Request: fold
Amino acid sequence: MSAENTNVRTNEDIRNDFVLIAQNEYAYLDNAATSQKPVCVIEAEKRFYTDMNANPMRGFYPLSLEATKAYEDARSCVANFIGASCPEEIVFTRNATESINLVAYSWGLNNIRACDEIAVSVSEHHSNMLPWQMVAKATGAKLNYIECKSDGSYSDEELERAINSRTKLVAITHVSNVLGRRNPIEKITEMAHSFGALVLVDASQSIPHMKIDVQKLGADFLAFSGHKLLAPMGIGALYGRKSLLEDMPPFLTGGEMIESVRLDGATYAEVPHKFEAGTVNAAGAYALSEAIRYINSIGYEYIKERDRVLTAKAIEALRKTEHVRILGSEDPYDHNGIISFTIDNVHPHDISEVLAQDKVCIRAGHHCAQPLMEHLKIGSCARASIMFYNSEDEVERFIESVASVRRRLGWA
Amino acid sequence: MSAENTNVRTNEDIRNDFVLIAQNEYAYLDNAATSQKPVCVIEAEKRFYTDMNANPMRGFYPLSLEATKAYEDARSCVANFIGASCPEEIVFTRNATESINLVAYSWGLNNIRACDEIAVSVSEHHSNMLPWQMVAKATGAKLNYIECKSDGSYSDEELERAINSRTKLVAITHVSNVLGRRNPIEKITEMAHSFGALVLVDASQSIPHMKIDVQKLGADFLAFSGHKLLAPMGIGALYGRKSLLEDMPPFLTGGEMIESVRLDGATYAEVPHKFEAGTVNAAGAYALSEAIRYINSIGYEYIKERDRVLTAKAIEALRKTEHVRILGSEDPYDHNGIISFTIDNVHPHDISEVLAQDKVCIRAGHHCAQPLMEHLKIGSCARASIMFYNSEDEVERFIESVASVRRRLGWA
Amino acid sequence: MDSRNLYNEILTEHNMRPYYKHELEDADLVLEGVNPNCGDDIWLKLKLDGDVITDGAFVGDGCAISQASADIMLGLVIGRTKSEAIRLIDMFTRMIKGEAGEEEIEELEEASALKDISHMPARVKCAVLGWHTLEEMIGDKGGDES
Amino acid sequence: MDSRNLYNEILTEHNMRPYYKHELEDADLVLEGVNPNCGDDIWLKLKLDGDVITDGAFVGDGCAISQASADIMLGLVIGRTKSEAIRLIDMFTRMIKGEAGEEEIEELEEASALKDISHMPARVKCAVLGWHTLEEMIGDKGGDES
Ligand SMILES: Cc1ncc(COP(=O)(O)O)c(C=O)c1O
Ligand SMILES: Cc1ncc(COP(=O)(O)O)c(C=O)c1O
Reply:
């Protein structure tokens, strides 16, 4: 580790924090799918198991008390990180998908009726669409899809049409995982609240790239995954306003989420434990809090700057490459590190395969956003996604490889 | 590492595989709550992140293919370990609690009617009781509790009363987490199947201590957690017969579990992926497969022998200690490493606190089995639970500490 | 987190031979206090004459800490006014949080035997159960809490 | 997992200029084949005279591998009997699994250009899509599969 002060660390210093990245073998540009993990996070998880491994919550011996403290401190860390009013507003889940399903099952099925509407943007990831299709089907409510323009933006008229007096919930992503565009959450929460509707924000793609403040956003619920935010797989979080969480019935039931159980029923623990059935992933939560500490040490200033520089470089080069079409906004700054594109006459899977031959890692397909693909009238696309640890060199490898695709597929 | 052959490793060799255990500071006897993790498991999880970290299932580049392979190989490993017919019969979950909830929501709510009965033993962990209370309440079905005798055994008459022609499902634990007794699953599955009922077996407490064979047990569903089986937190498994899983609707919905999504609905992927919504915990599954490899290298022969020796030692000594009352069977062999007890005039929390002062880690309380506590007419109890890596010395520390409890609480 | 002295003589005495653990006929106030997680459960009963707590008792079930603490508390507050009792509850709560001064701890008399609980987060709820229950019973009318 | 040569000349040729990718009027058999995960989607159409495949075509959408493989397959099976076709499908499937012998691979003619797919588990489904669809169309009546 270089002994310099914070924020004078170079990209190379930072790359050395990530084992796979430091090896420079792969140009890893699939960060929107999952991020790499810094050594400190991997070591934190290991440390949990070697220094304080015990089942938290119920033991009186020191190991269990330490495990409990590590877990609850992680909850406070997440709460602070996103501006929640108190730690009880954070429920630990496995991933964003589970966070959203929890709201759909516990809040949705109990608060939405046949005469209501649920507004869901057409650009949602399947994880923020299927649960609402389920709720709509179960309750008879109408799913009102908010349609975006081809650059991913929403017109005021469209928002006004979709969010109306019948709306009970708006489920919308903060940043689209295909177009990279940041949605106007503040405007949407204001509109929704004026009709008494709630807003669930899917922050899966935004939280690795921008400071989240649930108060400023006006979010009632907010979901994200740890694994896209430098943390291990198997841990995620749901933010919910405390009064909402308190009124919701439990979802999964079992150990650790009860006050008392009788043969004819049970009374449940307070939030957030009411929603955390069974043995919790304390090591994962602990490692997530370490990931947050690392992100804070890097700083969102730096992250945004790297996103901007690298995205601009990639987009400018691709724009000059014949037969390449970039999806979404013209402005690199609107992409938050996500660059989706197609190449004429080449199927995206073949793009990704050719790039893989060059050890450039990107993703191709429908990106769990089939309705958006249909809306944009494409079957699938290729997507490169950037994280602050990526280098100019990696972006160049990507650009060169993309430029060679058509030739290598015979379209010389 | 000692270079000797398999199975000639001493207890000390084995203890050195576990960082916290090797330190000899704590006598860790709370293994039924969660096990310690061997170095090889911790290293496996780390290796996933440093050697092949990528989002599995959808990438075409080598890292993602390796991650996918690690994850699916882990599924095969679990399937082999418990005698499933094929890997597709294994669904990865977060823990046993989620495995059981999955069956309750997906199979239970769709197959159980008001005229049906669900037979649940009174000694179940809350995680195998609350989900069935939920199903009973939602469907109007009757919960028929199977009552055990005070040693934890079931009379034939009681089984015949509780499992009858109206029974649709029997939910029963393989080994009780309080009494340690192994339930006669083979007999129960035979009875249940003769009425066309299914059986869900909770193997959370049995799988760390005995070879599981779902075919021999006749289990239709079987649930367990990784963290009690030397694996990390945040990974568990559900076994389900393939034809059953195929007929069940999905539970959580979102990315990775679909074939195609349209604005008006979706078609789902094949089992088991249909039940694994969102980014999977591939690193956890990979580490679980390493834990299974480790268990296999130790061998259940050795494990059972250690359970027997250490349990007998503890039980014999406690029996000679005045004012101590042991719960369950007289025969140490019936305890599978679990020794629950009370001390006259001393609240179990005070027992556990005094033992904690001596760095002996045990658990006290209702052990997420309040109905069993009521059935046994106690409010709570203390529980020591043994794993193969525990030593004679640790058991002695436990015995001595227990013997001192009444004195230290003033009952000199 | 060294708690070797937790089960000191004062505490064990009040646990083994609680003075106030009995029924109380004609109580003016009765309230149940529960720690659901650990199962501590007490019924607190008080007799009042105007603002003065003239008698008190408790029944229930729980660990030595919860039972002894309730017993010690009753010894301390019987004969005092509600507002004096509230002041003591406040002091006790701060002692448990490790925030009370020397003289305050002294003023708590036998209850000071519980001061080491401040290092044992898992047992704090047991120690304060009786006190919180008392506060709920008399607090809203307790007057000058300062 | 080196796949440098995957997009070889034979494959790219059949992808860019597929001979059999067109409509086929009056087809006797028509079946859709889909790889839901990656979106490959073809409609396979055949004309039969008794047991002999006299003509065939496909339309659809998908990656170069799925499209080229379907095109190569039709070139190979047109003019053959159903049972000969089934034998070739079986051979091809084994080649993709890395289980076919030298002579077998030779017998597959241009289709042998796809043999490196055996090292690329993620692309196997693309390569076999056309062949499995054909098998479903003619397999049940295919006779002596041996
Ligand atoms: C018998 C039994 N079933 C289920 C569980 C629940 O396991 P988990 O909390 O890992 O979901 C446990 C352990 O806590 C148990 O002992
Ligand atoms: C916008 C968005 N929402 C939700 C998800 C689902 O996240 P996970 O699979 O971790 O649950 C993802 C990522 O896959 C995403 O990009």
Notes: The interface with chain D takes residues 345-347, 349-350, 353-354, 356-357, 365-366, 379-380, 408-411 of chain A (CB under 8 Å).
